[in-house]
Amino acid sequence: MAKDAAKTVIITGASSGIGLAAALEYARHGWRVGLIARGEPALRAAEAMVEAAGGTAHVAVADVADAAALRRAAVEIEQVLGPADVWVNNAGIGFYGRFVDVPEAAFRRVMEVNFFGTVNGTRIALEGMRARNRGTIVQVLSAVSFIGVPLQSAYASSKFALRGFCEAVRGELVNERSAVHVTLVHPPAVNTPFYSHAGSVMEAAPRPPPPVYQPELLGEAMYLAGISRRRDWKVTGATVAFAAGNAVAPNVLDHLAGLMGVGAQKTRRERVVEARDPNIFAPSIRPARTHGPFDGEALGFSLQWALMKSPRVVGLGLGVLAVGALAGVARGRRRRVG
Known about the structure:
This protein has 338 residues and is of the alpha/beta class. It has twelve helices and 13 strands. Strands 3-2-1-4-6-7-12 form a seven-stranded parallel β-sheet, with helices on both faces. It has a two-stranded parallel sheet with strand order 5-9. Helix 1 packs across helix 7 and helix 8 (237-248) packs across helix 9 (250-260). The relative contact order is 0.13.
């Protein structure tokens, strides 16, 4: 794999799941990778994995909801690795249950980490990037940022709020003619420890609704988002369908989510139950890992993603479709003439 010229990326929530997958993808391209998370043991394991993948790593412990701690972590990383060319706001947590059953403290905690943690990271990243007039901030949102699904009222609220926040900041950067770029990545359901780490008041364990995809797809998306100027990245057809469905037929999507969304997010499978490791209010003590307990059903390929990341293939496909359409029209005219 070709190596990029040495650059620095800082990733929050980098000790597991898609954050770790992104760190490994940047490392494979020779980047210097700053890893931020709450748990030092998992961070140290992630550091070793990044260096084994070909990157240079430095870890700093911080809770993204604590702006002062996050700033100290960023300063430490940049002193060691250099100024951040890319900042990935990935840290996120979830809490499952009907809204009326979710404790206020848990709801507030999800907002503090997912929304205010990203606000904190964006503010810190912009301080240096605006001064240098370069850099990219990758904001990790979700397919759920297009439609709120049952049992995830806090998580959906945080992701909806982030869409508005990111668009406002992007507009301000455009207004000041800044070269700093803000891009959004929208993952689908992914096989990561997120569901094991999520809090819950349900009678069963949380699980991702199918189709489920492997985290390496998102690691690649978060890397490509950092090196390109695309506005947003909807990863897999499931995410595209969520966005399009809510725009075209929101009532239908509401009913489908209500009828099928609850059962699709619960499981009593022994392996999933045994993997439960809630980390809402304290970091996990388990080793760093990208994958969750859903390898048996997770997909490693998405046709939509393969097309989206390859504009030439998309252009070729559209060309073929256009030629086919013109040929069909021509055949129809010949039949009418005949």
